[in-house]
Amino acid sequence: MTAFGAASLIAAWLSASAWAPDPSYEIYVTNEISGDLSLISGSTLKVEATVPLGKRPRGIEASADGKSLFVALSGNRVLTRIKVGMRPRAVAFTPDGAKAYVPGELDGSITIIDTQKLGIIGTIQLEGEVMRPMDAVISPDGRSLYLSTGLGRQVIHVDTRIDKVLREVTVGTRPWGLAVSPDGRRIFSANGPSNDVSVIDADSFKVIATIPVASGPWGIAVASRPSH
Fold first, then answer.
1. How far is the first Cα of the chain from the last one, in angstroms, to the nearest whole number?
2. Which of 41, 73, 189, 213 is the most buried (most CB within 10 A)?
3. Rounded to two decimals, what is the model's pTM?
4. Beta partners for 198?
């Protein structure tokens, strides 16, 4: 997914001592309000292209080979409903496909589902009135679940081996979409009202860079550059 139209470059702030540029992947951000997609270079941490998508793009996933992106546009027909927490926003699967995590925004819950038995095997309850889980992503090794919390302004780290919250970090205003780099070392948070992306170091679980993007970033995905 590197062939786009004219590039729109936006300056990005970063700490050179904290960030090592990685040309092996690209970062894709869906912008809900402007209805388009921002392509960010993993090498320069700058927006290299903006692509029109349609009405209110939100969730985004990249194919395993990095050649395709799948974007959810608001208003599409609902095919199936599953009873979980209040106002489910996303679903994240472990790499082996054994478990699924579904955040419930309004009740601060994360429902854990056994995908083989199609039954609920647990619930994680977040503390705090403004802790409203939005997006959920799993690390490549399957050991970590990351959750954005919207009004809570935090990204939360859950250990999937024990299904317990380990750490939190404050990011931009109302974090929505999340993505993890292919090597699992970085977590990216799309912060809607602040129009930026926070870059989190997975080891220290601290924000190491902030990247300005277009208006109302919602979804975000990271894909390895396909070999040519």
1. 12
2. 189
3. 0.68
4. 189, 210
